[in-house]
Amino acid sequence: MTVKFKIYRYNPEKDAEAYVQEYELEDIEPGMMLLAALLRIKDEQDETLSFRRSCGEGVCGSDGMNINGINGLACVTAIDGLKQPVEIKPLPGLPVIRDLIIDMDQFYKQYRAVKPYLVVNDPMPEVELKQTPQQREQLDGLYECVLCACCSTSCPSFWWNPDKFLGPAALLQASRFIEDSRDQDIENRLENLEGPFKLFRCHTIMNCVQVCPKGLNPTKAIGRIKHKMVKRSL
Amino acid sequence: MSATPEQNPAEASIERRQFDTLIIGAGGGGLRAALKLAEADLSVAVVSKVFPTRSHTVAAQGGMNAALANVLPDNWHWHMFDTVKGSDYLGDQDAIEYMCRSAPKAVYELEHFGVPFSRLDNGKIYQRAFGGQSQDFGGDQAARTCAAADRTGHAILHSLYQQNIRAKTHFFDEYFAVDLLKGQDGHVLGAVVFDIHDGQIMVIEAKTTLLATGGAGQLFKTTTNALINTGDGMGMAMRAGIPLQDMEFFQFHPTGIAGRGMLITEGVRGEGGYLVNGQGERLMERYAPKAKDLASRDVVSRAIAIEIREGRGCGPNKDHVLLKLDHLGEEVIQKRLPGIRQTCITFLGIDPAEAPIPVFPTAHYTMGGIPTNRFGQVVVPVKDTPEEPVAGLYAAGECACVSVHGGNRLGGNSLLDILVFGRAAANHIIEYLQENKYHRALDEEQMKLVVEKAQQYNNTAGGSSSEKIETVAGLRKELKQVMEEHCGVFRNKEILEQGVVRVEQLVLRMKNVKIDDSSFTFNTAKVEAFELENLMAVAVATIHSAAAREESRGAHSRIDFPDRDDKAWMRHSLYSFDNGLDYKPVRTKPMSVASFPPKPRVY
User: Fold this and answer.
1) Looking at residue B52, what DSSP letter applies?
2) Which of B57, B75, B79, B77 lies closest to B130, judged by CA?
């Protein structure tokens, strides 16, 4: 099978503005993932094509990009199902460094802003803190995030206020600790999310749910936080 | 003694920074050490070529071994026995004792850091059975592997990164380390790095340097490893004159997805899955009557390779075997193995709850590496001393060879290795810094050479040369093919010697590499060129060490020398650019218990 690609190119050292470059690959095998195609283009046709990648199996979250208008990880997106020519752009809403590589500083800043680490104030036991399987189940669907930014960069609320709205990825992390039976900072975590922007800019557009390559549901997580905030204020 | 920036002769514009410790690599080993050091109020720089949570620790699935005895009776001494036996008696028993004794504490620490381990009904950490584990020194199967579903590495790496956020560790994300810096007296004093974002070179001076760069699975064509696993720290060590140890021992994981390489955790077999050949037989009954599918990885990988070689493979080409787990039921699979289920659906269109997974032994883990003692200090032979520390230099994790894995690593011991020895290295660094309070003077000439090296691909695009121009992609493809063909599961003299010649030819051709990208902005072509140099160095050490070892031990299986030969070969290989091959004894004396003498290895 021959497949055509239209890929966003931009190198600030050379290009006044971004442009689209076309590539064509022959012998695409059934089941081949998009990342494999990009690697072939880089190896066989154009060494300058730039993108991030690492694990190649959807666990490290490096290769988030916009594929035919939808955010996803190239390594777990099969070419078979894609309309041709396959249009590939960087994730939207954050500055482009080069080609498909975006500057994720803002995204990471929002992640750090929710204090994404377990806080235990009591003295630690010499063994594990106990947690029942039911308590642990509360973390399913929250802890698996790979920080690929597909969700936050698909969210209109994040596009308009990337500095004020924390975005779905960071809020999912907030929920991951709020729901952890071991955490002892839940009051502060909820307090930290008050105000019109940080959390409440979520208008349940649910783009985040549609694009998450891990099948997670940030909108639901945000709903869980809202519920806890309401309960707290009563 | 601290050098002043004005003295920098290399280039006025090059930034110089000073830290107590430079850590290269932000996987589990690097992050564990960083956390310990940051909490000790030391200034720590962590340099990583990828954002920390992209490191390959994230891909570890099955879990981490520790004798917690949460499910079945257990103690660290049994764990130690299993690890020594698993190593095929090439592991160093002091380091193994230290690791197995430290394991429970390492797991509890992680739990306190927030790792969302799966749980038992009594609220304790869930533990599953894994290969090579026994109770009572070779008795019944043990359940020693602490798991967070089948995403244990992800859970651990993210929690460690999160704790480093809390501790405000200083990260240089997406910086590439080129080579180590030295003082006149041989101390290692940091590294030259460049910022991948803008190509700017920076000199990081450090009183201590920890290499935590991971393995070199990209040596092989089919691999479970991430594309970033290019043996960078090993390459840097070799160029600094340090030998690599036991590189002929490369683990082939029995269950990579056939032809594709994605890892299917040993946890599948730990939960009750098993391997089936083309005749529908449970093949492991023939090779390991007692442990069956939970024999050591080297044993299971060889068994699969033999079945296929003898015509009992599955599929139209009889080129794989099947891993069956549908009998576990959808609930167990969804609860304990959700990650590999998704991987199979994504990459094969197969739901393992309904149909078996085609698997084949796949390059997975570098048992060898930079030689260290159990404090994480890099050690080299000096005159009659086989293990003399290199002042200021440490290594931990897959890039290091302590050696706790010897000839074959047990599943669940690699996460343990990175956490125990990342922490041990940090502890020793803290001690070392109390005695070594000030920065030493760099060897400015050596630094100049390293800075030049960091610039070597800056303007190769379009350059003319009388030699044939080579591409990174072309040479890399050939190297992976050569290693796959000449250094695989089964080896013999002829194949290995051809491999040595072919690898050395590739190394020579590396000098003619040109890259087509002269940009300073996120130049991934340049990064890949440096990575390939590191892979080449690792390949040279690996193929030479393999060709020389005339016995079969652990993962190194010689068809022409099928038996283990303890008299001649119970010793570690060392390979360096300057001296070629050398050997040193195995540390058979544990810290406190009796030594486990070599025995025939039966599962």
Assistant:
1) G
2) B79
Rounded Cα distance between B161 and B469, Å, is: 42
Q: Which of B39, B48, B51 to mutate to test the interface with A (most CBs of A within 10 A)?
A: B51
ipTM for the predicted complex:
0.98
* φ, ψ of residue B393 in degrees (nearest 5): -115, 130
Confidence check: pLDDT of B283 > 80:
yes
Q: What is the pLDDT of residue B13?
A: 81
Model confidence over B62-103: pLDDT tens digits? 999 999 999 999 999 999 999 999 999 999 999 999 999 999
Provide, rounded to the nearest whole percent, the portion of chain A with pLDDT above 90.
97
Mark yes or no for CB contact B51/A104 under 8 Å: yes
pLDDT, average across residues A24-40? 95
pLDDT confidence bin for B9, thresholds 50/70/90: very low
End residue of a domain, out of A79, A102, A125: A102
Nearest CB among A53, A78, A128 relative to B108 is that of A128
Name the residue among A118, A133, A180 with its Cβ closest to that of B121. Answer: A133
Helix (H, G, I), strand (E, B) or coil at B159: helix
Query: B195: which DSSP letter?
Result: E
Here the CATH number for the domain that contains residue B286 is 3.90.700.10
Domain that holds residue B331: 255-363
Q: How far apart are CA A115 and CA A183, in angstroms?
A: 12
Structural domain count of chain B: 1
- A217 to chain B, minimum CA–CA distance in Å? 16
User: How far apart are the CA of A130 and the nearest CA of chain B, in angstroms?
Assistant: 5
Q: Which of B235-249, B252-266, B448-462, B508-522 has the lowest mean pLDDT?
A: B448-462
Confirm if B361 and B261 have CB atoms less than 8 A apart: no
B168 near A CB under 8 A? no
Report yes or no: B373 and B393 within 8 Å, Cβ to Cβ: no
Judge whether residue B1 has pLDDT over 70: no
Could you give the CA distance from residue B115 to residue A232 in angstroms, rounded to a whole number?
A: 27
Q: What residue has token string 């609320």?
A: A157
A125 and A94 inside one domain: no
**What pLDDT, in 10s, does the model give residues B519-530?**
999 999 999 999
CB B126, CB B147: distance < 8 Å:
yes
- Across the interface, whether the CB atoms of B522 and A76 are under 8 A apart is answered no
Known catalytic residues of B are: 297
* Most distant CA pair in chain A, distance: 63
Residues 438-457 of B with CB under 8 A from A: none
A45, A112: one domain: no
Write out residues 326-385 of B within 8 Å (CB-CB) of A. Answer: 339, 342-343, 346-349
d(CA A75, CA A55): 8
Residue B88 belongs to a domain:
no
What is chain B's mean pLDDT, rounded? 96
Distance (Å, rounded) from C-alpha B62 to C-alpha B411?
8
Q: Of the residues A68, A102, A136, which one is the last residue of a structural domain? A: A102
Q: Is the dihedral of CA B146, B152, B157, B160 positive or negative?
A: negative
Range of the domain at A9: 3-102
Check: CB of residue B371 under 8 Å from CB of residue B385: no
Q: What's the rounded Cα separation, in Å, for the pair A11 and B519?
A: 8
Same domain, A196 and A91: no
Report how many domains make up chain A. Answer: 2
